Amino acid sequence: VYVEQVEAGLSRILAVYSSALPPVVGPVRSARETDLELLRQFDRPTLAFSGAQSRLLPVIDRAPLDPVPPSKAPGAYFRGPDRPAPHNLYLRPERIPFEASGVNAVEELGLKVGAPPPGGEPEDSRTVRYPSASVTFTWSAERERWLVSLDGSPARTAEGGRLGAGTVVVQDVTVRPSDFRDRSGNTSPFTETVGSGSAVVLRDGRAYEARWSRSAADADTVYTTPDGQRVDLAEGPLWILYAPRGGA
């Protein structure tokens, strides 16, 4: 699960599925330029999205991925009665032209489950702030998960279960204006995911200082300890937050 900044300082979630697909995913929202660079880390993924700014659509079509908006698979999308539009568009993944690669998404990023690095500091809770949004992770030793809250409210599945992460990576990035705007005229931010910088890795109730580096758009992001050792993950879902530098 990735979290990125969008217009008006809000946050947006991009979820990557590989080993198993739920019967329904949503709400499905529009794509951003940031998503295209982010997804270069995967081998031609399928991107389900509700639409995009008109000038961005040709850029999406040229990107090394398979875009599937509602116009390409109208039978896969539906509007739910539980929320007002545009927050009520959902996808049935089995109805889109998608073939599983057989490769675990985390492994495709060059990451693996392993022992924690030495050191670290005990951590009960960590909040990542965007100009108009926040994501909080609270450690539950009983569940061995970081429980997720969005804007101060517990994040839950459609069945009511609490969302949780085995590992959380807070990646400090540069967020700058892009050349695109939304319908209201707000400039869409672009998150630079190629480069390097500092990060914090949360796992097993502890926080570890780390570094991230990505040499090119088609390269993986490498997470290491300050002394250069690779950082491995705990069992469970992985959340990566692109935190504006100085905002976490």
N- to C-terminal distance:
18 Å
In the CATH scheme, the class of the largest domain would be Alpha Beta
Largest sheet: 9 strands, mixed
Please indicate the count of domains: 2
What value does the average pLDDT take?
92
Can you describe what's shown?
The protein has two domains: 18-108, no CATH class; 121-244, YerB-like fold. Helices cover 6% and strands 38% of the residues. It has three helices and 18 strands. The two termini are 18 Å apart. The model has no long low-confidence stretch (mean pLDDT 92).
Attribute tags:
single chain; 248 residues; mainly beta; YerB-like fold; 2 domains; 9-stranded mixed β-sheet; 5-stranded antiparallel β-sheet; 3 helices
Q: What's the quick description here?
A:
The chain is mainly beta. The chain has helices spanning 33-38, 57-62, 105-108; strands spanning 2-5, 11-14, 46-48, 66-68, 77-79, 89-91, 121-122, 125-130, 133-140, 145-150, 153-154, 164-165, 167-181, 187-192, 195-203, 206-214, 222-224, 238-244. It has 2 domains: 18-108, no CATH class; 121-244, YerB-like (YerB-like fold, 3-Layer(bba) Sandwich).
Task: Please describe the topology of this protein.
Layout: E1 2-5, E2 11-14, H1 33-38, E3 46-48, H2 57-62, E4 66-68, E5 77-79, E6 89-91, H3 105-108, E7 121-122, E8 125-130, E9 133-140, E10 145-150, E11 153-154, E12 164-165, E13 167-181, E14 187-192, E15 195-203, E16 206-214, E17 222-224, E18 238-244
Parallel strand pairs: 1-18, 3-4, 13-18
Antiparallel strand pairs: 1-2, 5-6, 7-16, 8-9, 9-10, 10-11, 10-12, 13-14, 13-15, 15-16, 16-17
